[in-house]
Amino acid sequence: MKTDLYIKTDFLVIGSGIAGLSFALKASGHGKVVIVTKEKAMESNTKYAQGGIAVVWDPIRDSPEKHIEDTMTAGAGLNNRNIVELVVREAHDRVEELIRLGVNFDTNEKGTYDLAKEGGHSEHRILHHKDITGLEIEQKLLQNVLKNPNIVLLENHFAVDILTQHHLGEIVTSQTKGIECYGAYVLNVAENKVFRILARKTIMAGGGIGQVYASTTNPLIATGDAIAMVYRAKGFVKDMEFVQFHPTSFYQPGASPSFLITEALRGAGAVLKNHAGEEFMYKYDSRGSLAPRDIVARAIDHEMKISGKDFVYLDARHIDRKHFISHFPNIYDHCMKSGIDPFLKMIPVVPAQHYICGGIETDEWARTNIKNLYAIGECACTGLHGANRLASNSLLESVVFAHRASVHASQTLGDGIIQEKIPEWNAEGTVNAEEMILITQSRKEVQQIMSNYVGIVRSDIRLKRAWDRLELIYKENEELYDRTTISVPLCELRNIICVGYLIIKHAMRRKKSIGLHYMATEK
Ligand code: FAD
Ligand code: SIN
């Protein structure tokens, strides 16, 4: 495709994870779709999802009411109940669609779906594909996208900023009424050139923020670009203080991303133990190792502080070998390659950043406050998760809101315009980055600041320190951004700084501990 000046399309989708691909497939029945994705299409948080997708599938034992209550309890009641009810009630239809698209979920010896259990769930309700559910979903969605004649997929295309009246020379602030989105400036990485994609409807499906932290289960692409782009365009962003740390990533200092040990392994009987061999979780919660994530991650953090060690253990030695290897082949492989035979040794685990519950504020149709701009998947804040996400509710949220966004965006396609007055990208006065070290070093600094001061346990003093440090890096980077030719590392750094700033700002506003936001009293 020629990308010199601009591309015109009905729907521009930014991101090729479960949310973006699901939306694209649905919208393709109503118009032309262009998907841009910053690396290979497969690379996404989705690809790494292990445990599965939560859905009420056993109507005898389980019920939507139970799933709703589990979601509300995990979210500390800060969830939007209407959204929780809507997601849970639409879950079955959306999961059936995935199955129709070819996604294989594991069955048991009776031939029915094998329903797993994870932390915070009162029933077995997780559909999964071994311990590589995300890979299975991503592959099947992508196969369908690639054979769809109405969808163009542009890999190695990095969305830099979304287009609004600001790019027509108007003053746009967060108070401006009627901000509209006209598409995005996109960097073609191979040609090192920014061009315009003009769209009637733009869909943000840019995923998570893990790389804002030093230790995360998210891949390198998870730099919060979507949230930062929308924030810069004066879109509303909320609940950023609710950063979820997964309790059990494989302890391997320096690994990025950190390898996840799915919660489903605890659902299958593995238990957390400290260095004294004590099953410590019952000291913290009657649900033991299967308490919700915020509680387990904090308990591990506390145990590590008491013992002065950098990890605790997950004991899976008693789990039936055949069951372990058939259900968790990916984890078994990883442990063995790392010198841990899980039937002989306990697995060393440590919490790592995993998910952002906050993000771009959306309504029940995935609309943002910016006209013709939608946000779906992890970058959106729909109100489903409240102060803490229930395990396996994210893949579910993505498909539910991809569907809802597609319904709304298709029905209102005529409201969107192709705004050809948007000027070309202006690279005047910029030069190539003479020292890449400035960018890579700042990225590491931000990650350290966020992990050290804005992690599982926070305090006023730590947040203030993070704020001051980040402000300095922000100023340095803005100056660098203005004088340097655009590149992916530079844009990612800018986005990481922006997301770090939003997390700290929202954390500072919330004085009391709730869910994932835990404030220690400084002595
Ligand atoms: P992603 O899948 O992350 O896709 C985002 C896409 O946007 C990527 O293609 C990326 O390249 C692209 N992108 C980003 N920025 C730009 C840009 N500037 N320009 C162009 N493209 C861009 N959830 C569950 O419900 N169940 C689980 O079992 C589960 N397990 C998980 C295990 C791991 C290790 C991880 C990391 C997450 C897990 N999650 C799980 C969470 C879940 O996988 C994610 O929240 C979900 O997949 C997000 O989907 P998404 O489509 O919103 O984003
Ligand atoms: C896991 O498999 O433990 C992750 C599930 C999730 O993030 O929802």
Features:
3 domains, alpha/beta, Methane Monooxygenase Hydroxylase, Chain G, domain 1, 14 helices, seven-stranded mixed sheet, binds succinic acid, binds flavin-adenine dinucleotide, FAD/NAD(P)-binding domain, 15% strand
What is the topological layout?
Layout: E1 6-14, H1 18-27, E2 33-36, H2 45-48, E3 53-54, H3 64-74, H4 81-100, E4 126-127, H5 133-146, E5 151-154, E6 157-162, E7 183-188, E8 193-204, H6 225-232, E9 237-238, E10 243-250, H7 263-267, E11 271-273, H8 293-307, E12 312-315, H9 321-327, H10 329-337, E13 347-356, E14 359-361, E15 373-375, E16 380-381, H11 393-411, H12 436-453, H13 460-483, H14 488-509
Description:
- With 523 residues, this protein is of the alpha/beta class.
- The protein has 3 domains: 296 residues, 3-Layer(bba) Sandwich (FAD/NAD(P)-binding domain), CATH 3.50.50.60; 103 residues, Alpha-Beta Complex (Flavocytochrome C3, Chain A, domain 1), CATH 3.90.700; 73 residues, Fumarate reductase/succinate dehydrogenase flavoprotein-like, C-terminal domain (Methane Monooxygenase Hydroxylase, Chain G, domain 1, Up-down Bundle), CATH 1.20.58.
- It is built from 14 helices and 16 strands.
- The strands form 4 sheets. Strands 1, 2, 5, 6, 7, 8 and 15 form a 7-stranded mixed β-sheet that branches. A 4-stranded antiparallel β-sheet has the order 10-13-12-11, with helices on one face.
- The model has no long low-confidence stretch (mean pLDDT 96).
- Bound molecules: flavin-adenine dinucleotide and succinic acid.
CATH class of the largest domain: Alpha Beta
CATH topology label of the largest domain: FAD/NAD(P)-binding domain
The gyration radius over C-alpha positions equals: 22 Å
| CATH architecture level-2 label of the largest domain | 3-Layer(bba) Sandwich
SS-based class = alpha/beta
Number of domains: 3
Classified in CATH, the superfamily of the largest domain is: FAD/NAD(P)-binding domain
Which ligands appear in the coordinates? flavin-adenine dinucleotide, succinic acid
Strand content: 15-25%
Pattern of helices and strands? EHEHEHHEHEEEEHEEHEHEHHEEEEHHHH
Kindly report the oligomeric state of this protein. Answer: single chain
Compute the average pLDDT: 96
Low-confidence stretches: none
Q: Tally of extended strands? A: 16
Q: Which descriptor suits the 3D outline?
A: globular
In which range does the helix fraction lie? 25-40%
- What does the main sheet amount to? 7 strands, mixed
Query: Count the helices. How many?
Result: 14
Compute the separation of the termini in Å.
61 Å
